[in-house]
Specification:
Number of helices: 9
Helix content: 40-55%
Largest sheet: 7 strands, mixed
Order of helices and strands: HHEHEHEEHEHHEHHE
Strand order of the largest sheet: 3-2-1-4-5-7-6
CATH architecture: 3-Layer(aba) Sandwich
CATH topology: Rossmann fold
Number of domains: 1
Radius of gyration: 17 Å
Length: 255
């Protein structure tokens, strides 16, 4: 059983608990803010982003968080239980389709996506060149890519991740964390253009990942952390940007 299969088994086990992160206010606020910040370059270009294919979608929270900003949201995840939880989570949201699928064997037709979205999923996958080939097949000419990944540029955060893997049964010990160069080279190998890099998540990311109670304390703290993150995103320059938890890559397919 490879890393991908072991993570599939893990997420089948924790799906209902995981869904709570997108429901409980303190974590849901941070997770939605993270998504909107990463999506800003695309949302600035057009009000409706068209058809989204979200690879490794989990419960498909962007279906709700981006409701009204797309024509069709298609979420792919190989975890049966995550997709089941996602259908419950998005039951009142129109134009959401969730599919049990490994992206490398995706049933999504060619040239379907105006936007390929990947939120913290690449580091769970094996055969990344095969993954990219499948995503490129699904993307329309000129489609946008938005990828959010944990990055390895901050040693303190790497230590925190190692500790969490030892004490949190819902956190995979086998995750890998990319450098900027690794992700850029992956994009370039598959012909993506207009590649841009941003670093996001300084204080708010822990709120996005862990439900902290009581909520009457954690909700205002989460809001404050989100505000600080927005400020830091505009203020930090050069190597200081790599103090963040996450890296965001955007790019476009050839037309």
């Amino acid at each position: 059983m490879n890393r991908e299969s072991r993570d599939q088994s893990l997420y089948n086990t924790i799906a209902k608990k995981y869904m709570q992160k997108d429901i409980v206010q303190s974590s849901a606020l941070a997770r939605k803010s993270q998504l909107l910040a990463a999506m800003q370059p695309v949302l600035a270009k057009r009000e409706n982003v068209g058809t989204i294919v979200d690879v490794g979608c989990g419960i498909g929270a962007p279906g709700l968080f981006l409701n009204g900003r797309y024509t069709h949201y298609i979420g792919l995840d190989q975890s049966v239980e995550m997709i089941a939880a996602g259908k419950q989570f998005n039951q009142t949201v129109p134009n959401v389709t969730l599919i049990i699928n490994n992206v490398k064997e995706s049933s999504v037709p060619d040239n379907s996506a105006d936007l390929i979205l990947v939120i913290g999923a690449l580091h769970h996958m094996t055969g990344l060149d095969d993954v990219m080939q499948s995503m490129m097949r699904m993307a329309k000419p000129g489609a946008d890519f938005v990828v959010i990944e944990p990055q390895n540029g901050n040693p303190l955060i790497q230590l925190m991740r190692w500790v969490r893997a030892k004490i949190d049964a819902g956190y995979s010990e086998e995750q890998i964390f990319f450098s900027e160069q690794e992700l850029v080279e992956l994009f370039q190998r598959h012909g993506l253009q207009n590649i841009d890099i941003a670093y996001h998540g300084f204080l708010a990311t822990p709120f996005a990942q862990v439900i902290i109670n009581p909520q009457f304390i954690s909700v205002p703290l989460s809001r404050f952390a989100i505000w600080v993150d927005h400020w830091l995103n505009h203020q930090l320059r050069g190597p200081l940007r790599k103090l963040s938890f996450n890296i965001v890559l955007t790019g476009t397919c050839k037309k």
